[in-house]
Write a sequence for this structure.
């Protein structure tokens, strides 16, 4: 089987859109965003100014993606990446596809001079927490909040 990891490209728009819906609606059971909004987000990430998206293809089929956003840390007075998304279809979880997507994000972060990469996992997503622990992740001291 042939695994390819690469930056998302314009030709990935439809397949990536469907994969993102699987992630948003199927996995997290959140409302389905309008297709135009998903396409705008993908287009923004294709420009590689605010972030970047990577895709994983197994035997030519899109099976996963990861998204990095670029931001800054006042405390470190430096730039860092936020891995906002790491998603692979269920049959590819706990496989090299998932690990290599994570490592691609880490490599990009290091190669482009970012001070570190951060991410969050849902408190009930124990499988993801075990994966991140295995990959060398360290749980931070901060509590995440949001306003909806």
């Amino acid at each position: 089987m042939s695994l390819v990891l690469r930056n998302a490209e314009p030709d990935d728009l439809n397949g990536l859109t469907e994969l993102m819906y699987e992630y948003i609606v199927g996995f997290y059971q959140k409302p389905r965003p309008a297709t135009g909004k998903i396409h705008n987000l993908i287009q923004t990430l294709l420009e590689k100014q605010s972030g970047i998206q990577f895709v994983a293809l197994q035997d030519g089929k899109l099976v996963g993606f990861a998204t990095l956003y670029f931001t800054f840390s006042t405390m470190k007075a430096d730039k860092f990446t936020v891995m906002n998304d790491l998603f692979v279809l269920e049959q590819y979880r706990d496989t090299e596809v998932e690990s290599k997507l994570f490592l691609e994000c880490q490599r990009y972060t290091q190669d482009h001079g970012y001070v570190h990469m951060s991410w969050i996992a849902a408190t009930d997503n124990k499988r993801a927490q075990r994966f991140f622990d295995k990959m060398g992740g360290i749980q931070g001291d901060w509590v995440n909040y949001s306003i909806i």
User: Anything to note?
Assistant: The longest helix spans residues 96-111. The two ends are 43 Å apart (CA to CA). Helices lie at 13-27, 35-46, 96-111, 126-134.
